[in-house]
């Protein structure tokens, strides 16, 4: 079956391309942003912050997008041109990242507020940070989190919904539609990233693993709940140890 073999190769190529893009994003993140950890927006304006945020989202989110991309390629198997399939896949990923760029505006405002708290309200900041962690952890236990996670874990149901999309921007719309559910699934973890420092590479790696396993592992929903409880427990230590949240704690110069 030449057609089926070609589609299988395209799917594997798309998955490898996504993983390769994520790896490249991680490389640039480590090489260019390793010294930018701390509270606030690191002195970046909105556009600069969104550029960094997009790079981070590519590093963190693209690996978990690979299963859906593979399923989407199966749904457009009637398109014989490999070039057209590649363009449509790129449009899908682009639409997905556009949604996360939109959320980046919210993250920028949150990071700016975190910087102000760390600088001007050091006594209040740990309590705010603890509240943020509790809220993020509690969200992991809610039905809304479960609903969004089921969407992310069920690409077939997702494709049934978007099968009626038409027009030149249909693939971008598909990516944005999925991105909205992905934001609904992961926004709490991204707020945690703001609290611990947007460019905190260790936390980035941990949250990337959690997000990937939530969406792809058979015990993902259970992991989601465990993560929620862990965040709430972690929050209990923050008021006494504000340094646990570098995104809300201004380190004293030696």
Total number of beta strands: 0
> Helix proportion of residues, in percent?
over 70%
* Secondary structure category: mainly alpha
Q: Pick out the low-confidence regions.
A: none
The H-and-E topology, N to C, reads as HHHHHHHHH
Could you tell me how far the N terminus lies from the C terminus, measured between alpha carbons in angstroms?
68 Å
Mean pLDDT over all positions = 88
Q: Please summarize the sheet with the most strands.
A: none
Q: Radius of gyration over alpha carbons?
A: 19 Å
H/I helix tally: 9
Protein architecture, described:
- This protein is mainly α.
- It contains nine helices and no strands.
- The mean pLDDT is 88.
Topology:
Elements: H1 2-33, H2 46-75, H3 82-120, H4 125-139, H5 143-153, H6 155-162, H7 170-196, H8 201-216, H9 220-237
Helix pairs in contact: 1-2, 1-3, 2-3, 2-8, 3-7, 4-7, 4-9, 5-7, 7-8, 8-9
Write a brief structural summary.
This protein has 254 residues and is an all-alpha fold.
Primary descriptors:
mainly alpha, 254 residues, single chain, globular
């Amino acid at each position: 079956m030449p057609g089926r073999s070609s589609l299988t190769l395209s799917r594997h190529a798309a998955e490898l391309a996504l993983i390769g893009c994520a790896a490249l994003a991680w490389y640039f993140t480590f090489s260019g942003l390793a010294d930018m950890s701390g509270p606030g927006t690191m002195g970046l304006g909105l556009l600069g912050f969104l550029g960094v945020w997009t790079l981070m989202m590519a590093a963190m989110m693209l690996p978990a997008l690979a299963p859906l991309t593979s399923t989407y390629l199966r749904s457009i198997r009637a398109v014989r041109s490999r070039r057209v399939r590649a363009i449509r896949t790129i449009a899908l990923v682009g639409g997905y990242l556009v949604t996360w760029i939109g959320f980046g505006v919210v993250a920028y405002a949150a990071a700016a507020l975190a910087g102000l708290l760390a600088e001007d309200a050091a006594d209040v900041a740990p309590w705010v940070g603890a509240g943020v962690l509790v809220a993020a952890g509690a969200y992991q236990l809610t039905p809304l989190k479960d609903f969004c996670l089921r969407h992310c874990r069920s690409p077939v149901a997702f494709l049934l919904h978007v099968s009626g999309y038409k027009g030149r921007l249909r693939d971008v719309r598909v990516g944005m539609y999925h991105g909205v559910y992905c934001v609904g699934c992961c926004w709490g973890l991204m707020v945690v990233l703001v609290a611990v420092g947007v460019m905190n590479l260790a936390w980035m790696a941990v949250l990337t693993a959690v997000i990937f396993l939530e969406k792809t592992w058979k015990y993902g929903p259970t992991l989601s709940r465990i993560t929620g409880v862990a965040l709430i427990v972690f929050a209990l230590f923050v008021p006494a140890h504000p340094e646990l949240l570098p995104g809300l704690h201004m380190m004293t110069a030696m």
